[in-house]
Each structure stands twice: as C-alpha cells, then as structure tokens.
Known about the structure:
- By secondary structure, the chain is an alpha/beta fold.
- The chain has a single domain, classed as P-loop containing nucleotide triphosphate hydrolases (Rossmann fold, 3-Layer(aba) Sandwich).
- It is built from 16 helices and 7 strands.
- Strands 3-2-4-1-5-6-7 form a 7-stranded parallel beta sheet, with helices on both faces.
- It starts with 11 loop residues before the first strand and ends with a helix.
- Keywords: GTP-binding, Hydrolase, Nucleotide-binding.
- GO terms for molecular function: GTP binding; GTPase activity.
- Heterodimers with GPN1 or GPN3. Binds to RNA polymerase II (RNAPII).
- Pfam families: ATP_bind_1.
Amino acid sequence: xxxxxxxxxxxxxxxxxxxxxxxxxxxxxxxxxxxxxxxxxxxxxxxxxxxxxxxxxxxxxxxxxxxxxxxxxxxxxxxxxxxxxxxxxxxxxxxxxxxxxxxxxxxxxxxxxxxxxxxxxxxxxxxxxxxxxxxxxxxxxxxxxxxxxxxxxxxxxxxxxxxxxxxxxxxxxxxxxxxxxxxxxxxxxxxxxxxxxxxxxxxxxxxxxxxxxxxxxxxxxxxxxxxxxxxxxxxxxxxxxxxxxxxxxxxxxxxxxxxxxxxxxxxxxxxxxxxxxxxxxxxxxxxxxxxxxxxxxxxxxxxxxxxxxxxxx
Length: 313
C-alpha cells in the first residue's frame, strides 16, 4: 500500500465521531468545528458517511465523492444496511483515495463524521481497519461515542446503551470518550430515577436492576439483567461526559477529555483564545450550569439520593 513508502507522515490529531443514528454526530461535528476554529486550530472535517446529505458544516473531504449509498443500493439491489456495509468495505479497499485527499491538508486537526450503523463498531471490521490504517499514517485519534441522553430516563435502554458502549470500546480499540448528548433536552424525557452522576459515572447498577424488577415484563429477565450488569461493572471502562453542544463550558469539558485521551497539548495561542472566549461569555445566557444542575434535583422516588441510599446500607 502507498502508505508504506516514503518518509514517516507528520503527526496529526483528530476525533472519529461515532454513535447510533440520531445521537447528534453531525451537529457535534459542526459545533466542534466552530469551537476549535475560534480557538485557533485549523480544522478539517471528513464526512465518512456515504448516506450523509445536506451537510451543515464546511466539509473538506467528502467520502460521497468516492461512493454513495444511493448508488450502491440501486446498482447492487441492496437495502440500506447491507448497502452501508458495502460502502465501508469499498472505502477500506480504496484508502489511497482518502490518503491523497488528506495529504492536501497539512498541520490540521481532523474530525471524522462517521456513519451511524451500530454493527460497524461492534463486530464488523471495515471501520476498525480504516481507523487502524489512519493510526499507521501517524494519526492520534480519539473515538468520541455519542449517546442520546434520553436513554437515561429508561433503565432498560440505559443498560442496553452501556452494553453497546462497552462493545464498541473493545472492538474499535482507540482511546475512547463516551458522550451523553443533548443534555439541554434531558428534562423533556421525564424525571430521572437517580442523580446525573449515577449515569455519567456508571455507579452501582443493582439500583437499576431494582427499578427494572418493578416492571412485570422485565422481572422475569432479572437474572439476565444481573449478568449484563456484572459484565459492565467487571470491565469498569464505561463512563460518560455530559454535553450541551450550544454551551461553551460544556464543549470545553468534552474537548479536554478528548485531548487528554489522544495526547494533544494546548499551545499558548489556544490557551489565550480560550481565556478570551470565556471572558466574553461572562454574563451571557449559557445553559451549562442549569443543565448540569439537574443532578441536584434528580432524586430517587423514595426521596433519597443515591448517596443517601448507599449510606443506609
């Protein structure tokens, strides 16, 4: 492969943005592109989704120039799922195209907006192999896995999200930051059973099992749910960072986690720009404090917080 010849490529940093459909990947890429540009980073956004149309951000490299889902579905008579798998296999087989495109952007920070099909990150190898090749091209990447925060309102869905997140972390094999997206909308989905910290830090899941057992449908699956919770807690890998993409402080929190994961270091110029940005934000109507303040209002139905319950044990 062409990547094996010539001098060692320059060190480049970036994020691969993954997650299920509707989790806010494209919105995240748009918001992060604008945020990083204000900080002084030269940002290149790579659309890796052959089904992504009408992109809201400035796209420097678009995989749809190589292959599109509509063309594959029409030409090979495949459905959307099979067509997307074929597209990513095609991209994997034609990585020289992607390499040539990226060579045109030196000294840049890369955002890869990836497809939303879950199996691409849990057991199918094409995307994993693409990420591995990027690492060989001297990219230091962090996988940013977005999950819609409304899953926190349903214990069964939250356990499912934990299993998917863990499986993705183990399969993708990149430094990983899990994000609870759309935190500004979380209260629209109803009251959470526990403090927000319970969900972001993935505390003792036996509390969730008790809530599931209260539902007649899930009660008969208690043993299965217990084993799933044991697997998640035995690995001890999954945690989440809450995100409201419209809030600067929330974006800073996410960016620091991402930069820590892939080893990116702020320069003096970025630090000054960041301080100036936050100084300008003083007095503005940002929602970060009120968004994260919900954890103080979320108590268990008994009226006790998780910490109080633990003290009673």
